[in-house]
Amino acid sequence: MQEMMVQARETGRDYEHCLALQRKLDDVDSEMKVDDSRVKSIKTLADRLIRLGRSNTRSVQQRRDNLIAK
Q1: The pTM is what?
Q2: 41 and 66 assigned to the same domain
């Protein structure tokens, strides 16, 4: 979500809007919190696809690595 806000160039319309955006970014209990178990599950599935070799493994590897990097 943070990355999406940056890519959208969301900088705030005024001071109050900037404060609201800052709270969204700082709120550790918000919906933007990374779900570690979901990331691990996706990584496991990607590793399984790569081992099976039944799909475009290079694409799967790149997408998995991008997810982990984020």
Answers
A1: 0.48
A2: yes
